[in-house]
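Incident log, support desk, overnight shift.

02:14 A customer reports that sequence design results differ from what the structure should imply. Their input is reproduced verbatim below. On-call engineer (initials T.W.) acknowledged and began investigating.
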């Protein structure tokens, strides 16, 4: 790989020196290349524009939800999918247009549903019968008509890690199709004067590398609606487009996935003599994943002769739980000298008190010393989003970089933040 560097031979991110960023903001540090994010958002939109079909690209903000990213999405004419009151709150505080929000989730609370209706969330993606009833009552109480989609579990297994596969029949999400629950939900929703049933939704899983599952899903949603004698305005096929973490991953360009979905639905619409429904996609990982990297400072090492070299950094499973949770692997480089020839293969370990706390399983690196800056690549999705205070480590800061400029968008937590909600115990 040939990484971009400056005169000092340091890695640059959008023209900004990564080692300087580490110095200025400290490590661990999440750094996002915003022009990369914009390019991807525009690329998704361009495919639909080229095919001349109605569409909505709804960024799955669970992959990375901060005020700043909602603002970038809004600037790019991208909608957002939210899955909690907390994401809704963040989006609203970012002045995101609530009409452009859709709300997913298998157990939205009464408070969350109220919050959504009171804030004017555009679309609620209804997941189950309890929610259908609650929403109907609430909409009546608030004297409004709420746009909804029905989330269906399509019975499609995607080839991905079990924990991030959601489309198979044995799933907690959505109305079951095979046993007729989806039809039952349709009958209830379509007859409800306070609910405006706009369409159907199904998400088959995440980090998927072939188009077949997406085609099947799109076709199935159309067939399902047709079998109910109904033409939906919206068909939402979810997200899940795979990205490259290491050289064992070979994702297709996003245009391949999206074109396949569009062609499938064009064909179905012709067959059923429908006007083209609005196609919604919900990409998360593919929007922010490769745009983000995490900078760490290298600390101690442990060399076990003839076995392994462990290189420890100042972060780990608290800022990136994915290796521990999904056996995910990453690639790393030395930000001080990214293009130097590798001298050894190391395993990059975190600083957390768990043997499973690893960041990179095997990485060739030049000689390193404590204080060097290591960048782990493609951490932009589900890194910060899933960060924790495990071992009472403060969560890192987030910096956005664009056009040679950098800006702090989430401050680093301090020890004070860690105990901000703690009370002294005083029952004797
Ligand atoms: N839409 C729905 C309904 C979803 O459940 C998800 C992801 C997405 C869209 C976005 O999928 P994406 O394009 O980001 O793959 N924490 C796991 C991923 C869990 C994904 C959950 N749902 C990970 O770190 O791999």
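02:41 Re-run completed on a clean worker. Output:
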């Amino acid at each position: 790989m040939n990484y971009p560097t400056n005169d000092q031979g340091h890695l640059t991110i959008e023209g900004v020196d990564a080692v300087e960023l580490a110095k200025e903001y400290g490590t661990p540090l999440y750094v996002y290349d915003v022009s990369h994010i914009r390019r991807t958002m525009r690329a998704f939109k361009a495919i639909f524009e080229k095919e001349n079909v109605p569409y909505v690209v709804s960024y799955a903000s669970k992959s990375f939800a901060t005020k700043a990213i909602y603002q970038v999405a809004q600037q790019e004419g991208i909608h957002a999918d939210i899955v909690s009151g907390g994401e809704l709150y963040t989006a609203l505080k970012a002045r995101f247009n609530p009409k452009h929000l859709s709300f997913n989730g298998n157990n939205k609370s009464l408070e969350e549903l109220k919050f959504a209706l009171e804030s004017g969330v555009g679309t609620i993606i209804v997941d189950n019968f309890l929610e259908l009833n609650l929403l109907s009552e609430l909409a009546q109480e608030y004297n409004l008509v709420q746009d909804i989609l029905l989330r269906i579990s399509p019975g499609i297994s995607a080839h991905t890690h079990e924990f991030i596969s959601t489309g198979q029949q044995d799933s907690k999400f959505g109305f079951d199709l095979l046993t007729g629950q989806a039809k039952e939900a349709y009958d209830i929703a379509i007859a409800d004067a306070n609910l405006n049933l706009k369409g159907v939704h199904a998400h088959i899983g995440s980090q998927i590398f072939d188009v077949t599952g997406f085609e099947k899903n799109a076709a199935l949603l159309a067939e399902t609606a047709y079998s109910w004698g109904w033409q939906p305005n919206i068909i939402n096929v979810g997200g899940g487009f795979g990205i490259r973490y290491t050289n064992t991953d070979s994702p297709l360009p996003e245009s391949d996935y999206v074109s396949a979905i569009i062609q499938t639905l064009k064909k179905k619409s012709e067959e059923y003599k429908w006007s083209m429904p609005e196609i919604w996609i919900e990409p998360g990982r593919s929007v922010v994943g490769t745009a983000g990297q995490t900078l760490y400072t290298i600390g101690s090492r442990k060399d076990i002769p003839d076995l392994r070299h462990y290189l420890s950094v100042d972060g780990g499973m608290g800022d990136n739980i994915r290796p521990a949770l999904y056996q995910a692997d990453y690639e790393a480089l030395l930000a001080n000298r990214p293009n130097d020839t590798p001298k050894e293969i190391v395993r990059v370990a975190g600083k957390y008190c768990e043997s499973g706390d690893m960041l990179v399983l095997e990485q060739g690196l030049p000689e390193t010393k404590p204080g060097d800056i290591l960048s782990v690549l493609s951490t932009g999705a589900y890194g910060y989003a899933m960060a924790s205070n495990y071992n009472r480590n403060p969560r890192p800061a987030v910096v956005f970089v664009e056009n040679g400029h950098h800006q702090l968008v989430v401050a680093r937590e301090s020890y004070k933040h860690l105990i901000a909600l703690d009370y002294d115990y005083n029952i004797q």
